[in-house]
Design a protein that fits this description.
The structure is a single chain. This protein has 320 residues and is of the alpha/beta class. The protein contains 10 helices and 9 strands. It has a 7-stranded mixed β-sheet, with helices on both faces. Helix 1 packs across helix 4 and helix 9 crosses helix 10.
Length: 320
């Protein structure tokens, strides 16, 4: 009881501090150039890499698992330093966007879109589109960039903790009519997800984290990783196309939203097997994208950690 109270109090204090820091930072970030943003991230990332041993060792350990046959330890450590640059750049980019949101031409419209024709063709099918995302590059920009372009976008985000800060961030996202909802309660999030696809809208799902409860085991960098099957489940249920979408950083000061071709699957009479197959296919697409720009993925998630009770997995009722 006392531990729960202290935890709640600490979250409340952190929430207020982060809100205050955001308010203080906005005038500074309005005067900052993308080059200045990258410079701050490079300094901050280097400091965090040196001082936070726990995260440094986790990133190096995950990179070693993924690239043990391709890179030596010196290469992995150099890559880990780049990872920390991009890791610290992500929250700074979010503040930068809030500070420079208007007019849209000032920043958000400068993000180039490649593969827009894939999205247009998928929406023409009138079954909705699942934007398959990952914690890769400037992933927090994706929803806003599509919304400003005029696309109806729905984003499922876990917003536990820091309610004041999340409310403030949601207000900025809501200005361009993005619809934000939580994965909890589970049944409500499922209903909202299916409904937006049936309205022929876009559902943005980030599906690269460890799903330790009811995740489907699929290969990821040569190791079995328990993966959320939400994109596959919604696609099988509605017929919605799954399109990989990633906002990648170019030369540290430019961004490109890359929209890939739809991930295809031949349906069978076994829905459970189809969900497994599609989950394996979209996980491979995420892996290939990370391999293309490995420093832009966080590498902090314990991606290959075993689930709580492997024997109790229910493949028919996957968590999103």
């Amino acid at each position: 009881m006392q531990k729960s109270f202290l935890k709640k109090m600490m979250y409340g204090l952190g929430d207020s501090l982060l809100n205050g820091l955001l308010t203080f930072s906005l005038p500074i970030f309005r005067r900052l150039s993308p080059k200045g943003l990258a410079f701050i991230a490079s300094i901050t990332g280097a400091v965090v890499f040196q001082l936070v041993k726990k995260y440094r060792e986790r990133v190096i350990g995950n990179l070693s698992v993924a690239f043990r046959k391709e890179k030596n330890m010196g290469e992995i450590k150099r890559l880990a330093k780049e990872v920390f640059f991009h890791f610290t750049l992500t929250p700074l980019e979010t503040v930068y966007f809030i500070a420079n949101a208007f007019p849209f031409e000032r920043f958000i419209l400068k993000i180039e879109i490649k593969g827009k024709e894939h999205l247009e063709m998928a929406l023409a099918r009138r079954k909705g589109v699942i934007a398959l995302g990952a914690h890769l590059g400037a992933f927090t920009f994706l929803g806003t960039r599509l919304a400003v372009e005029g696309y109806p976008i729905n984003i499922m985000i876990n917003q536990e903790g820091f309610p004041k800060l999340w409310k403030r961030l949601n207000n900025y996202q809501g200005i361009v009519d993005q619809k934000i909802f939580s994965p909890k309660p589970f049944t409500t999030s499922i209903k909202k997800s299916l409904n937006c696809l049936r309205r022929n809208e876009i559902l943005y799902l980030v599906a690269d984290e460890q799903q330790r409860r009811r995740g489907i085991p699929v290969p990821f960098f040569g190791q079995e990783a328990f993966t959320p099957s939400g994109p596959a489940l919604f696609s099988i249920k509605t017929g919605a196309s799954i399109l990989p979408m990633f906002v990648l950083r170019e030369d540290k000061i430019r961004w490109t939203l890359v929209i890939g071709r739809p991930i295809q699957i031949e349906r069978t009479s076994d829905e459970k097997k189809d969900i497994e197959t599609l989950t394996k296919k979209f996980t491979k697409v995420i892996e290939d994208s990370i391999r293309h720009t490995p420093s832009q993925w966080t590498w902090l998630n314990r991606r290959w950690k075993l689930p709580y009770q492997k024997g109790s997995l229910d493949m028919g009722k996957q968590e999103v």
